[in-house]
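Hello,

Our lab assistant flagged a job as stuck in the queue for most of the afternoon. It eventually completed. Since we weren't sure the result was trustworthy after the delay, we are filing this so someone can double-check. Below is the sequence as submitted and the structure that was eventually returned. Let us know if re-running is recommended.
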Amino acid sequence: MSFFNSLSERQRQRLFGMGYATAGSVMFAFGLNVFIIPLSLYNGGFMGISQLIRTLVIKVLPFSLGQTDIAGIIYFLINLPLIYLAWSKMGRIFFARSIITIIIQTAALTFIPIPSSPVIDDYLTACVIGGIIAGTGSGMILRGGSSGGGQDILGIYFSKKFPGFSVGKVSIIINCFVYGICLLMFNIEIVIYSLIYGVVYSIACDRVHIQNINMSVMIFTKKLGISQAIIEQMGRGVTNWDGAGAYTNQASYILFVVISKYEVSQLKRIVRGIDPNVFMIFTEGCSVSGNFEKRLYP
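-- returned structure --
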């Protein structure tokens, strides 16, 4: 506990982030290995590509590693170029977090045993449960400011480089490729249930991953200094108005700022540290056009 108390707020945030990413990696692997793979269903994204390569390798070079799935190892290998992209374009902190997360995820995918027979025989139920568990795990990885590699790194890179791009658009493009190949290789039921799993997975991931959700905030206060504190500590622009309470007719200040949902707790801490009696209105999911920095990882 003394070690934890000695850490700065930024260091604590990074520690919690790695905890989120580690737990999320294990959850993703557990949901995929236990509920989805025993039914011969396929994940989307780069993990789906790894599964397809695994299937082709086993068909061409028949061998078996028992309950160990080599798709996790293949996933790590095809992520190597993307790890370099994270290093060169997204900073060393994001790179370090991502490579640790990818290693943990690869180990979990490789060593969490795949049941010899499905835990849940009903395809739809297995898709829902597996999708919730795996999607929550991926959301936790992203919420921790890390990435499990694959389309996450590509999506974050394109989101920051090109306006209007998103992680979701990259995932859709890659998933169309993966499930198109599945449609050629397998029967249509496998593709349909894999798509159902993919939809549940994406919904669960989005519910947990909150950095990509914009929030507009109106702050009503009688204290000075809040705007400057937000600018200095968060790097966000603030618009100020002078106002007056209709009931008391006392002068007040109205501040407006747009942040990501991930930054809400930080904003509350800054504002309430200056004015404990502040009144704030948060509006989720606002659309932003103009000079607004996307912060998809802290």
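-- support follow-up --
The delay was a queue issue, not a problem with the job. The result is valid. The chain is about 60% helix and 10% strand. The first helix runs from residue 2 to 6.
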